[in-house]
TrEMBL record:
Keywords: Cell outer membrane, Membrane, Receptor, Signal, Transmembrane, Transmembrane beta strand, Transport. PANTHER family: HEMOGLOBIN AND HEMOGLOBIN-HAPTOGLOBIN-BINDING PROTEIN 1-RELATED, TONB-DEPENDENT OUTER MEMBRANE RECEPTOR. Gene3D superfamilies: TonB-dependent receptor, beta-barrel domain, TonB-dependent receptor, plug domain. One of its GO terms (biological process) is siderophore transmembrane transport. This is Outer membrane receptor for ferrienterochelin and colicins. GO terms for cellular component: cell outer membrane. It comes from Sinomicrobium oceani. Pfam families: CarbopepD_reg_2 (PF13715), Plug (PF07715). It is found in: Cell outer membrane. It is a multi-pass membrane protein. Belongs to the TonB-dependent receptor family. The keyword Membrane applies.
């Protein structure tokens, strides 16, 4: 990127218009200001003006957009060194520090095109944020041939290269060994400024039995399913791995900021094929009038089978968006961007007609409509230079279905919803169980931020202050069954209406000061902010609030070396699934008299109901620490080495688990038969006995304590001109330690021995997983042929995991209580604990396989992949990829279980894409 300061004569030479003389410099205190700064953005190769370029002054936090003639304007800009950042989907992002003597700028920007000398098809460090973030542009996404947003994350340091898949929910993974519910739930997905929320997802079959799971595909209890988000209409993706600005809340791990296309573009048609996937996409952008307004529309159809030979397990996606951008006001100082998007997803597992055994079938259908509008208004007031806002409304219709044919002993089933005893009918020995979960999540959010600046001497304070509101509710019918539902012995299923569940409300306030300036020739920057979140304030049974300080400092020396470090706290609210779980239902036979003649049968079932809610639930918070360095070299500083170390500790992570509050002694009556009249139901005795059963269920808890730590590497060596090849290395050492906060409670039934106590084991059970991976990319580029090919070599140098905290000896026990009182733990002294053995105490001694204590270690593993793209002059483009193209899949035995062998590495996989711009 080259920046030029020019005079009116330059415009004459360029054949451009001559702008009026700039207003004189004004003074406010000791600071000089330029009332108006005008500029022009041109194509660095052709000299043509470039419209819709976002120009951001990093130190001031304000932005402007170039119009169709490439012109842009800033007002009341201080006369001091500033940094401009230029962004456009078709051009290479760049920055440079400069002075403005007369308020007039000519900026050139290089196209990101295969027919020119330079093209960027990898993730780059984001220039706007001081924290660790990766910016992925459109050309990189196209070369990657990504079918959904999850695949784009492969360009983030430390993430593994994977084959495209839609078989299971695709969850985000940032700075963690592998994706899971807690990590993905803590990752904010923000599209065009609007948060895509999963807080109202209640697609679970029974939270007290299976937590957030279901037989059908679901992301309840976790983060957004990224396979529902097409990557073909994406302009750029920013992945914030480190400490985010205080503007972003309701997150733990990081944020994925997505900007979709919103400008004039020719009609583009794409067809993508691989052995399991067929995808078609079309998109076009229009200019709606002469003031720079534009409309972009696109449509996507994707069909994916689980494998080449299995068409009965598949996923279908249909999505479309319409995005409208317009400038308002006499001086076009109000820019708005409005998006209307629709997504349909269907994940089904159907019966193979040639192999019908138990009629298993699962289907998950989702319809989502998203409306969002964001904008910025330039006011040029002392305490309000620019206002930015986002408003959104998302509505979904989710339907989960599962069926299975059961053949079992004769049983009875109760449908009671209260503590009671009822006579119930017997079920047939074989029946088809059908369950449906219908949810209608609705989320709304609004955020407004005020940006202004003030100055202390030669230092700039970029102030950000704002407020946010977010609401999530589920309006669905909930869980329903075709009677009889699945019989599950004592722990039973019941229906539940989701529209009876209260809405989740969140309020946030934030303020931030980004302090910047120079000490000699050394640039310094300090970003300090504070965020306050209040969650679910209308439900007084919860106390959920968080104060989150965030601090980041950087020093850029004259030797092209930047040192940076930061600390921050983030907080994630529990979802509706954790705030309002369903009750736990247990059915016990008070009488089970099954006779050959139906009229003589009698079944009495007593139902015991327990509230599984946890009003002591705390907010999940993460303390983030990171430090790093960036070193630039080369003629224009285009070569860079970045190293970042981080340590992130999450406390009170959400889980569905068994806790002391979710173990109970359930009492129920037992009836005896006094006589059996022929052809009639039995006559019951007046004597009624009582029985007590120990029961347990899952309840929401803050059971997870997690530490993610590691080192990230990104080295861009630029192009070696002799061979037209650029080299890039990314890598990361990642360590994830997850352990439990609560006691592990386990009832062990010993044959021939009455249960008198239940073992209680120490907290801290979990795992430690470590990996060190590097990816070397060689990018061979022939501009004259508009051809590029990328060869990547991914090496997993270290991959190991071990279990921690697993102990055979309990720390205490829960005595069996016949009277049904609340369970209490009786703790052992250390001498008593050491005296426990598996022979005398089999009911509380936990047998643990010796292999559990063995660390699983794998040898280094190599993976080679190929991607190529060819652009033809008639607008036709062809792309191809081959993952693991040498089909290297070594068969290796497990360290922990030597007789078990695994085929390591992803399978050989390939695909192609054909597109045309008309």
């Amino acid at each position: 990127m080259k920046f030029y300061i020019f005079f009116p004569l330059v415009y004459i030479v360029m054949g451009s218009c001559i702008w009026a003389q700039q207003a004189p410099v004004t003074t406010r205190g000791d600071q000089e200001f330029l009332p108006v700064v005008r500029g022009l953005v041109i194509n660095a190769y052709t000299g043509a003006p470039v419209g819709d370029v976002r120009i951001t002054i990093r130190e001031l936090g304000i932005e402007s957009y170039s119009n169709a003639e490439g012109q842009f304007t800033f007002k009341n800009i201080p006369v001091r060194p500033l940094t401009l950042i230029l962004e456009h989907g078709d051009y290479i992002t760049g920055e440079e520090t400069f002075d403005i003597p007369d308020g007039t700028l000519l900026l050139s920007i290089r196209p990101n095109s295969l027919d020119l000398d330079e093209v960027v098809v990898i993730g780059k460090r984001d220039l706007k944020t001081p924290s660790s973030a990766t910016m992925i542009n459109r050309k990189a996404i196209e070369h990657l041939q990504a079918t959904n947003l999850r695949e784009v994350l492969q360009l983030v340091p430390g993430n593994l290269i994977e084959n495209p898949t839609f078989t299971n929910t695709n969850q985000a993974n940032i700075r963690q060994y592998k994706a899971d519910n807690l990590g993905s739930l803590g990752t904010a997905v923000i599209i065009n400024g609007a948060t895509i929320s999963n807080n109202a997802n209640l697609q679970a079959i029974n939270t007290t039995r299976a937590g957030s799971g279901a037989a059908f595909s679901t992301s309840s209890g976790g983060g957004v399913d990224l396979r529902t988000i097409s990557a073909d209409n994406v302009e750029r993706v920013e992945v914030i791995r480190g400490i985010p600005s205080v503007e972003y809340g309701d997150l733990n791990a990081g944020a994925i900021l997505v900007q979709t296309k919103a400008r004039k573009e020719p009609l583009t048609l794409k067809a993508r094929f691989n052995p399991t996937l067929t995808q078609f996409w079309a998109g076009k952008g229009f200019n709606t009038d002469n003031d720079g307004s534009s409309l972009y529309v696109d449509l996507d159809y994707t069909k994916n089978n689980d494998s080449e030979t299995n068409k009965y397990q598949n996923y279908t996606r249909v999505s479309g968006t319409a995005q409208y951008t317009r400038h308002f006001g006499k001086e076009k100082n109000w820019r708005t961007n409005t998006t209307l998007a629709y997504t349909y997803g269907k994940d089904s597992y159907d019966m193979d007609p040639d192999f019908v055994v138990d009629s298993v079938k699962t289907v998950s259908r989702e319809h989502f409509i998203r409306f969002s509008s964001n904008g910025n208004i330039t006011l040029d007031r002392k305490f309000s230079q620019q206002i930015k806002y986002t408003a959104s409304l998302n509505y979904g219709d989710q339907k989960g279905y599962q069926q299975q044919y059961y053949t079992a002993d004769i049983t009875a089933e109760s449908y009671a919803l209260t503590n009671s005893t009822h006579e119930v009918p017997y079920l047939p020995s074989s029946y088809l169980s059908k369950m449906r979960v219908n949810g209608k999540p609705l989320s709304a959010n609004f955020r407004i931020s005020d940006h202004f600046n003030w100055y202390t001497g030669d230092y700039t304070h970029n102030i950000l202050a704002g407020a946010a509101w977010k609401m999530d509710v589920n309006l669905g019918e909930g869980k329903t069954f075709n009677r009889p539902p699945r019989n599950t012995s004592a722990h039973a299923y019941r229906t539940r209406r989701y529209n009876d569940i209260p809405a989740l409300h969140q309020f946030g306030l934030y303020v931030q000061d980004q302090f910047s300036g120079f000490i000699g020739k050394t640039a310094i920057s300090l970003q300090a902010g504070l965020r306050y979140d209040l969650m679910q304030p209308f439900d007084k049974s919860y106390d959920l609030k968080a104060l989150s300080p965030r601090l980041y400092a950087s020093v850029k020396t004259p030797f092209n070396l930047t040192l940076r470090s930061g600390y921050g706290v983030t907080a994630k609210s529990p979802t509706l699934l954790y705030l309002y779980p369903e009750n736990a239902y247990f059915d016990f036979y008070s009488l089970n008299h099954y006779a050959q003649r139906p009229e003589e049968r009698m079944a009495l079932i007593t139902t015991r109901v327990f509230d599984s809610g946890n009003h002591d639930l705390k907010l999940s918070k993460t303390a983030k620490y990171e430090a790093g360095m960036d070193y630039n070299w080369g003629e224009n500083g285009e070569k860079i080495l970045s190293v970042t170390g981080y340590y992130e500790k999450t406390r009170n992570g959400y889980d569905m688990s068994t806790t002391l509050n979710s173990v109970k002694f359930a009492q129920y009556p037992v009836y005896a038969i006094e006589s059996q009249p022929e052809g009639q139901q039995p006559v019951l005795s007046d004597e009624v006995s009582s029985m007590t059963r120990f029961v347990s269920y899952f309840a929401p808890s803050n059971n997870i304590r997690r530490v993610n730590k590691g080192v990230e590497l990104n080295a861009d060596f630029g192009k070696v001109d002799v061979i037209n090849t650029s080299f890039n290395i990314t890598g990361a050492y990642t360590s994830t330690k997850s352990v439990t906060n609560d006691y592990y409670i386990l009832q062990q039934n010993i044959a021939g021995r009455a249960t008198t106590r239940v073992g209680v084991f120490a907290p801290g059970r979990g795992s430690v997983e470590e990996r060190f991976v590097t990816t070397i990319r060689g990018i061979y580029h022939i501009p004259k042929l508009s051809f590029i090919v990328t060869l990547s070599a991914q090496t997993i140098w270290m991959d190991k995991n071990r279990y921690t905290g697993y102990q055979s000896l309990p720390v205490g026990y829960i005595p069996y209580n016949e009277s049904g009182e609340t369970p209490e733990i009786v703790f052992f002294s250390e001498s008593e604990r050491q005296g426990i053995n598996k022979y005398d105490d089999p009911d509380i001694y936990l047998n643990i396989n010796e292999a559990t204590y063995i660390t699983e270690k794998w040898q280094p593993l190599w993976l080679f992949n190929l991607k190529l793209t060819k652009e033809f002059r008639n607008g036709l483009n062809f792309s191809f990829f081959a993952n693991n193209f040498i089909n290297y899949r070594p068969l290796k035995s497990s360290t922990r279980y030597p007789t078990v062998y695994y085929k390591r590495n992803i399978s050989f996989f390939f695909g192609s894409e054909l597109s045309i711009r008309l």
